[in-house]
Design a protein that fits this description.
Two copies of one chain form a homodimer.
Chain A lengths: L1 H4 L4 E7 L3 H17 L2 E7 L5 H13 L5 E4 L9 H7 L11 H8 L10 H12 L8 E5 L5 H9 L2 E5 L5 H5 L4 E4 L17 E4 L3 E5 L2 E5 L4 H4 L5 E2 L6 H20 L7
Parallel strand pairs in A: 1-2, 1-3, 4-5, 4-6, 6-7, 7-10
Antiparallel strand pairs in A: 8-9
């Protein structure tokens, strides 16, 4: 794109407040952008800013021609409405895929969203890249966080279960050929929850601090699961990095659409 | 509403072409509107009208103050884009609940759509009115038509399965405490697919013509199912009429919002 039309994709990132984990996620995203030639721009707002101030920044980024994707780093401080702010992002720049129009088109059969949320897209991408056949397999998703992964899994397999707060989730998970966990509870999924040969995607990401220091942990007890699973994504280093790649992918797509440019042109 | 503010809710119905089943559905809807004091208005367009002509009618209904709900009778002739036409309906008047913003807000946790699609809302309403406990029950939905019922079922139970074109759907359905079928294949669900005591919601509706004449048939083999199920909705006469009621409900809601009126005021 840079060579042929002298333009680079641009990503606008908005951070409200000074959460350490958010700052660290943004640092990773900025670095990833640099590596592939996406120009990123971070707008920092103070913890106590008003919703009006945040919406003004969103509006500015919506209008800015060099910004093709907008990322609102979540969670926002509790006095701000996540819904109002995400709804204000232009659908064509919603590279996180969280605008209700994008979610709605993702959820409906036969519709195509402009963007698919990065973590969920990453989960399906991992399965494809590892050559896992999805169609006809029994897939189970634990956790009802936004339900986005579910739409994608449903779209690809025809036999799907979901358990949120079942009394005995292990009875459901033990039947799974593909198990996706997106709960945020470390070591929730134990070895006896798994069918031998299962493919496990661990989308959990929780910061745990103990005597060994701080580290990010998934939902799955990795040491036990690895004895049962045919394939498993580790945490950290599994779904996380591919989620970042999907953000870059969506940003490039947004820029290509904005400039009506494709690799072939 | 009529007594207190001298206003009646209004429903605009758009029919393109002369499909007999669509005409009959609209006749039923108009009659139901009359019974409860909703003023309905049907706009007929010829089978060969252009998308522009349909969009003009939608725009007119969007602006008309006496119309609070707009219903586009589906299916549309194949030369028209259902997506373009439904997306053009004002979200505040989308009493069918099919606009992507409404679907998106329905699909996302913690969001509230302005309207929920009538058939799916009706399905949950039947369960509530019959005193069926949903939470913690194993619910199975067959059929992936728009997936809307699924969001509602997911929201109420925590243990949910879906089967589309599974090779052996009966293995999944036999575990269901609540079974919803929304496929459109007469007699698909047989007695041996059911667990004794199951609650069956038959959302299928297919016009069958044979030596006994024409009639509407559900997905479930009623004669077999009634021997197993603790509760079952018949076709016709089950989910159909309650779907109409939900349309009236949504239309009244739309009018109440438009006039900022409530029973208490």
């Amino acid at each position: 794109m840079k060579n042929s039309i002298k333009k680079s994709p641009g990503l606008g990132i908005m951070l409200v407040g000074k959460r350490k984990d958010s700052q660290s996620f943004i640092h990773i995203k900025k670095k990833a952008c640099e590596e592939v030639g996406i120009i990123s721009e971070v707008v920092d707002l103070p913890e106590d800013c008003t919703e009006g101030e945040v919406l003004d920044v969103v509006s500015e980024l919506n209008h800015k021609e060099s910004v093709h994707g907008i990322l609102v780093q979540l969670p926002l401080p509790s006095h701000l409405s996540e819904q109002n702010i995400i709804n204000a992002v232009k659908v064509e720049k919603d590279v996180d895929g969280f605008h209700p129009v994008n979610i709605g088109n993702l959820a409906m059969m036969g519709r195509e969203p402009l963007f698919t949320p990065c973590a969920s897209k990453g989960c399906i991408e991992v399965l494809h890249r590892c050559g896992v056949e999805i169609m006809g397999k029994k897939a189970v998703v634990i956790g009802t966080n936004y339900r986005i992964t579910h739409f994608l899994v449903i779209a690809e397999t025809s036999c799907y279960s979901e358990c949120g707060t079942c009394i005995h989730p292990e009875e459901i998970t033990r039947e799974a050929d593909i198990l996706v966990s997106d709960v945020g509870v470390p070591n929730l999924v134990r070895g006896h929850w798994l069918k031998p040969g299962v493919v496990v995607i661990d989308m959990g990401s929780t910061l745990v601090t103990d005597s060994k220091g701080s580290r990010v942990t998934g939902d799955v007890c990795y040491e036990e699961a690895i004895l049962k699973a045919s394939l498993i994504t580790p945490v950290p280093g599994g779904v996380g990095p591919i989620t970042i790649s999907m953000l870059l992918y969506n940003t490039v797509e947004a820029a290509k659409r904005a400039y009506q440019w494709s690799e072939k042109s």
